[in-house]
Amino acid sequence: MNVSKLRIKHQENILVDISFKIENSLALVGQSGSGKSLTLKALLSMLPDSMECDFAYEADFVLVAGESIAFVPQNPFTALSPMTKIKKQFFIEDKKVKKLFTQVGLDIELLERFAPELSGGQLQRVVLAMALESNPKLLLLDEPTTALDPKNRILILELLKKLQKEFGFKILFVTHDINSAAALCEEICVIKDGKVIEYGVLTQTIEVPLQEYTKTLIEANFANREFRK
User: How is domain 2-219 classified at the architecture level of CATH?
Assistant: First the structure.
């Protein structure tokens, strides 16, 4: 998928003006306010009415949230209704839900439980199953391992790689955790103030960053805290 132009304006201010290509899996990184969240919202057609979006892309599918695009939020604890059984939060037949549960490594008995009865790792797997119920072409990940402990973080990343092979979706991974990005993605796009300042193979970029800004971000250790101005 090639996003040849994504320009987001608020009144006369250009907030984001970038382009990127997702061959297989791309990590989108940058400090707070760099434009990462706006990029996700633009892809999901969730920008507020006060913003203008000039968007052009090339892909073998049409970008439709809930169909060709699925979204995995940062916090699985707030992504589900606490008052509704897990099985009632899917929109596909039970047989397909059970198959998805098996694919994400969950016991189907958990379908009868409520979200507060599940652990963080289990909830994130449920959210992944929900994201995959439409068999998306593109999976948008917004810091999906931030709320998890180190053990579950590794397990979820390994699961994502496994699911990508099974389902064939592309990944856009917004994260502050360079280690997680390296474990999941092939390429990296570094943005600053709504502009792309570095783009390339992720492992090479980590080893030899071309921009001082990128070097600073890598050294800031995203896994522990948000890098702020």
Answer: 3-Layer(aba) Sandwich (3.40)
